[in-house]
Amino acid sequence: MQPDQDTSLAATVDAPPGWRSRFDSRSMLRWETGLAIVVIGIGILGMGTSSEFLTGNNMFNLGLQSGEIAIMALPMTLIIISGEIDLSVASIMGMSSAVLGYLWGKHWPMLAIFVVILLVGVLAGAINGLLVTRLGLPSLAVTIGTLGLYRGVANIILGPNTISNFPATYTNVGVTGVLHTNVSFSAAVFVVLAVIFGVVLHFTPVGRSIYAMGASPEAATFAGIRVKRIKTMLYIVSGVVCSLAGVLLTFRLSTSVNSNGLGLELDVVAVVLLGGVSIFGGRGTIVGVVLGVLAFAGISNALLLTSFNQEAASIPVGGLLLISVFVPNMAALAGRLRRLVARRGGAAPSAIGPGHD
Amino acid sequence: MSTTLAPPREPSGAPAEIGSRRLTERVFRVRESGIIAVLALFVLVTALIQPRFVSSSNIQFVLVNTAVYALVALGETMVIITRNVDLSVQSVLALSAYLSAGLFGHVHGIPIPVVFLVGLGIGLAFGAANGLMVSLGRVPSLVVTLATLYIIQGIDILVVGGNEVVASSLPAGFVDIPNATIFDIPWLAIAVAAVIAAGAYYLRSFRSGRELYAIGSNPDGARLAGIPVARRVFTAFTLCGGIAGVGGVLWAAQYQTINTSAGGNNFSLIVIASVVVGGVAIFGGSGSAVGAAIGALLLGTINVALDVLGISDFWDQAIAGFLLLLAITLDRGISVRLAAALRKRSARDAA
Predict the structure, then answer these.
(1) Containing structural domain, residue A201
(2) What are the residues whose beta carbons fall under 8 Å from the beta carbon of A334, sequence distance 6 or more?
(3) Is residue A245 part of a domain?
(4) Model ipTM?
(5) Are A187 and A63 in contact (CB under 8 A)?
(6) What are phi and psi of B258, to 5 degrees?
(7) CB A93 within 8 A of CB A258
């Protein structure tokens, strides 16, 4: 009796992925609505705690603080929807920052340096992509490896040196907004890229293919989708975008050191997951991720304006992340708890004796 | 450390099933002996260039420096074998290090074992929280433990604030833990090796240990086979947290000055890298605790060897990353071969 019950439980909960994603597409919509409300709430709370919060000056800072993370979250979104992950993003950022500093120290012209950094990004992404697709290695392990490798390259290139004599034309990205507005340069880049990534993901065949391969790689392959090629391209795009983010970070801080961007990979993953993207692939939207970015940036920034330690922003971010993963599973969880309670409750009387019934 | 641990023995299975069993068993041995070979090669080459590397004081240094990583790798192995992952170990370690070592300052004359128990308790509590959410909520552990990593980190920042535990507040018996040796072998390394041996024995020979592998190879199948999946996964996370908590106390004994940066920025990922280098499959179902410990030892040895060879520390991470890629590539090659060999064998048996 008991085992049978367990079997049926397993069967209902672990329905095939196709079913699950169909049911959850509705709850994902709800999650994005919920997240939008959270973002508005953070805005109101921010205004409540400090009159500074909604000022143009502070909005500039907000964009500046989280701009690079936001930019790297876009290709990460596509990669996670395709069923993979890229933990090397922050190391690619650090590597491109190191290359920038190193070559600038060698008096290369900036334009040539940009070309080299572009190639660095392509190469870094291609290595990730080829290891994952052509050798069939798990992306989690591969990109933990390249996380070490690329950060290591940054360490080797730069050693203990710090390069900070970048010209003001470039380092102004950390000081002034785009076209004399309060929109930071990195925030502007994020907006443009978000539109491009959003269109590609939601309105092109490639975008639909990305969902398909995330939901079921085999089915996608049999449907004629070039899974390996598209995944490799996604990693290359991620490499390029992350090296661009590295350039922005270097200029914003006006500093190239080997530790630039250290540890940001988990922030990037957190922002994407916060936006309602499923870690198993096949589900998620750019709109959700943009909201995730706003929530993340808003929380960090609002805490900056209070007397709280700003680094403790990780508590509300972590809490929100937990909520994001539990809300879509709430119905199943409640059912499981009910059954657990029922089983406990049902077991107790039977132990006393069936006579009571 | 590798010498103190007995290698897993060939099981005396029934003759009928020897065929594929022995083949897979051999492959697991190949995996571990591969890492041991790399480790031996590395030690040999380094020793030839710089004999100082195999001096007893340097070996002690390597063992002590690896101890915490190898210990936490045991817990992480248990979790990864069940096809889960625990990213929060570094924050558990950091918080436990601060709170437990801080007790010496707050409670005068508190016995050292009590401090270890407190560290263990802190770790068990957070591990149980992770385990509860993953097993009962059936939500992906990567997301849950990423979230708890953030939350515990935040708690750590709030609790520690601008304070730190300073070396002068710690009793001599505590700070001597990493230095105590017997026959030139650090007690710490022996204790950690014993714990790992116990863990390896549990994973290898206990029913509930084997069930962890079954869960990792096929979660749905394990459930249908009547394995209490939720309970086992919960236990794995709880143990992993508890071990990280003890790791925090050891970290405090070793580094003595404890603030929010205890454990470092990338501790969790380094531990996962050790586990994977040690031949544990990231998607569960295979690998051993001994392999993971050797993986940690290998990364620790590289760290020190580069130093001894006069190669700058800055090469360290690149080499470790490259080795990890090499390890998983070779592992993939082996398992593809294995699958082909098993297929051929079963085809031959059928004929």
Answers:
(1) 66-294
(2) none
(3) yes
(4) 0.77
(5) yes
(6) -120, 115
(7) no
